[in-house]
Amino acid sequence: MTRHIGIVACSAEGAALCYRTICVEGAGVLGPHAHPEVSMHTPSLADYVACLDAGDREGVAALMLASAEKLARIGADFLICPDNTIHQAFELVAPRSPLPWLHIAEVVADAAIARGFRRLGITGTKWLVDSEVYPNTLSARGLEFARPTTAERIEMDRVIMDELVQSRFTPEGVACFQQNIERLKGRGCDAVVLACAEIPLIIDDANSPLPPLDSTRLLARAALRHACGSDEE
């Protein structure tokens, strides 16, 4: 028996990548065509954006908890959220949640330590990069970090919100992230966190100036291990 994975989704492309990774890579753990049971709930992205623009973490938490309650009612055993940005409300969600969660930044920190990285660049939406989601988690694990400049954050946010979440993938968007990752490399980073669910759709090992830590797939794989009990051995 495997555990039922509940995905608390925010933006479609990133949630789809997380879901697809679980289902496709499940076969490598459970056998041909097999994967754990997976359910996903997604409110309107506009509802999340309105809360984020207003700095309303309680509103973000309420949306996440509404998804959590619905997933609990249909039998999910634990929850994940591939959206890094809304993890800034996680401390408001976890104590009130009907189910346990895997935290995306903790999963990324585990991967960074396992691979021997020491200083991570953080890329993502302006909300995420401005937040303490990764700084708090990385610092607690003895890892250093660097954030992009204000101008760099604004440009990456534009690519994410105007292109990637709209399923638009352009050479200019790729170049924006490559240039900003190159600058993080110049600031002493030895790896970069792709801390937005959609960034891995345009940046990967083949085109990144730094080794990328793909938060979306790392979380999906952690959920797969947890669902199959392999992280408890």
Task: Map the helices and strands.
Layout lengths: L4 E4 L3 H19 L7 E4 L3 H9 L3 H17 L4 E3 L9 H4 L10 H11 L4 E5 L2 H5 L2 H8 L3 E3 L3 H13 L8 H16 L4 E4 L17 E3 H14 L5
Parallel strand pairs: 1-2, 1-3, 4-5, 4-6, 6-7
Helix pairs in contact: 1-10, 2-3, 5-10, 8-9
What does this structure look like?
- The protein is α/β, with parallel strands linked by helices and 233 residues long.
- The protein has 2 domains: 5-103 and 217-232, Rossmann fold; 104-214, Rossmann fold, CATH 3.40.50.
- The chain contains 10 helices and 7 strands.
- The protein has helices at residues 12-30, 45-53, 57-73, 90-93, 104-114, 126-130, 133-140, 150-162, 171-186, 215-228, and strands spanning 5-8, 38-41, 78-80, 119-123, 144-146, 191-194, 212-214.
- It has a 4-stranded parallel beta sheet, with helices on both faces.
- α1 (12-30) links the parallel β1 (5-8) and β2.
- The longest helix has 19 residues, at 12-30.
- The two termini are 15 Å apart.
